[in-house]
Structure formats: C-alpha cells, structure tokens
Amino acid sequence: MKKNKILKIAAVVVLIITTALITRILTINQIIGSGTNYTKMLYLENYVKENFLYNDEIKKEDLEAGKLKGLVAGLKDPYSEYLTKEELQSLNEQTTGKFQGIGVIISPNEDGTVTVVSPIKGSPAEKAGLEPGDKILKIDGKDFSSEKINEASEAIRGKVGTEVKLLILKNNSNDTKEISVKRAEVKMDSVISDKIGEFGYIGVIMFDEDTGKDFISALDKLTNDGVKGIILDLRGDPGGLIDGAVEIGDAILPKTTFVTLKNNKDEIVQEYKLNENYSDINMVVLVNEGSASASEILAGAIKDLKRAPIVGQKTFGKGIVQTVSTFPGGDGIKLTTAEYFTPSGKSIHKIGILPDVKVDLPEDVKGIGLEYQDTDTQLQKAIEILKENTNK
C-alpha cells in the first residue's frame, strides 16, 4: 500500500512539473507567438538577463557583439564574420605585416600545449631566447592549453613597451624557465630569399602590403647575382592581400588578364590586368595543401599560362574573395563578396590547383624550405627540374 501511495504522489509531482513546463511554454508562445524576429530578440535579451545563472558577469558589449556575430554566422560561411574593434585591428595588423607584441608564431600542439613554431627574426622573442618547439605553459601567471590558442595569442600581444611574463618548457627538456619579454612593434618579412647553388630561392610567406615590392627587390638582386633560375615557394602561404599577388604576377608573367572577380549576379566586378614587361627567367613553383587564396591566384595564372612547372601537392581550394568594411565605431564585417577566376576562366574554389609534378614529403620530414634541403623532397625536385631546363 505504501508503495502505491508513493507512486501516486510521484505521479502527481510529475504532473505538476509537466503542467508548469507546458504553462511556461504556452506563456512564451503567447508573448512572442507570431511576432517579428525583433520582438523575439528583445524577449531573449530580457530573458537571458533575468534568468542566466551568471548574469552578474554579463557585459552589454558582449551581448551586442553576440547579436551581430550570430547574424553573420547564420550565413554558414567560414570566411565571413562580424569583427569587433579589437578583432578588426588584429586583421589590419596581419595585412600590414606589422604586429604589436613579442614577434612569435605559435600553434596548438597535439600534446595539448601552446607551442612556438618560430620567433620572427630580430624580434623581442628571438632576443629573449625563444626557439622552435618551446612550450608556453603560462602567460602572466595564467595557464593556457592548445584549446585556448586564440586567447593565448591575445594575452601575448599588447601595448608597445609593456612586458609579458612567460613560463617556458624548453624544447626536448624537462626544465621550465620564466622569462620577461618587452613588447614592441614587430615587422614580419613576407618574403625570404637566398641562393641555392646556381639558383635563386624566393619564399612568399603571406601577402601583405609590402609583399610585391619585397618580391621584386629579391628577384632583381638574384638576377643581378647571375642565378640561372628561380624557385618560387608558395607552400604554406595562406594568402592575404590580392594586390601583392598581382604585383608579383606583373613581374614574372606576360601581358594577360591575371584574375577576374565576379559577384553573386555573375557580373564582373574587377579585372586585374598585367603589363607587357616581365622577367622570363627560368622558374619552378612549389605549392602544397597550405597554399590558399592569393597564392592560388598566382599559381593558377602561372599554370594557365604555362609559365613554369608547378611542383608539390594540390592546393587548398579557396577561390573566393572577402571584402572588409569598417563601421563608424571601429568594428566591422568581413564578407565573402566575389569568386575569382584564373586567366582561362577556371574557378578553383573547393577544387584547388593540381601540381604538374606531384611530390609527397617523407613522413619524418622536420620542415620545408631553405633550412631543410636534406629532407625537403619537393624542394629537391624543384632544383632537379631547374637543372634539366637549364641544360636544354
């Protein structure tokens, strides 16, 4: 009997809870019912403020930014986003190649740590002794894991002249070390160049506002030094400003329509054309799955015009262009506004550019580029092709 009584009481309690839940759902439906999205937004904002467990931590500016971010996120385009004032400033720094910070490139590691990829040459990070492979465990006393890589990057950056304290686990060591690094304005070179025997090497790391000028300067120097050919390395280049790609194309390609941009109405919104004068020096181009956007525009034009063999792996496949608009308050939006087409009219979006000579890297390769010639099989192949073409 007691058991039946308990079951009856439990059923009544469940019924009361269910009735209350239904009543609340009906009440909400009555409030926002067939109302506009604006009405729903007002209700949601008030509801969150009144009922969110941690409402004392709610910041008005975060809610406002969240609304705008949610609107753009609804497009489901990974390249379009609303940008706060701070985020837009960070984006602008990337396109100029100038940063306020200590000048270190970091990446999330498989072991869950924030790991140094490399310090920028001549930067405060390099002078402080940071080396590739070092683990950054704490920033100003706060723990950071690979899941918080963006927060770690923000914590390291800061005003010029201020200091940041880093707890470092040195590469291949069990010893930790705390260092203080003074922040400064750091300029990251987007172009690196050197000679490999009788040939020249030019690596384009990213396309910023100085990339075209720096490439032409490197090409002129190597040409004046009498190199017999050039290796243009676009591997790992994520893109950037299209103007840099156009300037490089103008230096090494014949007169042509370099790239065409079309909008959502299939209208041509911009055509970039190249001039007649260019260097016809013997050349090989290196690409991989990290070559994207502006670097694919350049590689695509080179391939279409059969200017040089493309060596490596299929490129990333980002054939769309984003426009950045700034609002009066300093925030803004980065929106996908156009698709680009190579000189032959091809779209490479989600397709990529296939190399003329496919070369995979060995599994145990430690890196690519000038410092890793002994194991960089793609670079080795490029040198081999240059030698063959030179001896023809």
Summarize the structure in words:
The protein is of the alpha+beta class and about 400 residues long. The chain folds into three domains: about 1-60; about 100-185, PDZ domain (Pdz3 Domain, Roll), CATH 2.30.42.10; about 190-390, 2-enoyl-CoA Hydratase, Chain A, domain 1, CATH 3.90.226. About 35% of the residues lie in helices and about 25% in strands. The chain has helices at about 1-30, 35-50, 60-75, 85-95, 125, 150-155, 210-225, 240-250, 295-305, 375-390, and strands spanning about 80-85, 100, 105-110, 115-120, 135-140, 140-145, 165-170, 175-180, 185, 190-195, 200-205, 230-235, 255-260, 270-275, 285, 310, 320-325, 330-340, 355-360. Strands 3, 4, 5, 6, 7 and 8 form a six-stranded antiparallel beta sheet that branches. A six-stranded mixed beta sheet has the order 10-11-12-15-16-19, with helices on both faces. Helix 7 links the parallel strand 11 (about 200-205) and strand 12. The longest helix is centred in the first third of the chain and has 31 residues, at about 1-30. It is globular. The relative contact order is 0.09. Mean pLDDT is about 85; it is low at about 5-25.
The number of E-state strands comes to 19
Pick out the low-confidence regions. 6-26
- Averaged pLDDT, please? 87
Q: How many H/I helical runs?
A: 10
Structural class label: alpha+beta
Order of helices and strands: HHHEHEEEHEEHEEEEEHEHEEEHEEEEH
Based on CA atoms alone, the radius of gyration comes out at 27 Å
CATH topology (level 3) name of the largest domain: 2-enoyl-CoA Hydratase, Chain A, domain 1
CATH superfamily of the largest domain: 2-enoyl-CoA Hydratase, Chain A, domain 1
Kindly state the percentage of residues in helix.
25-40%
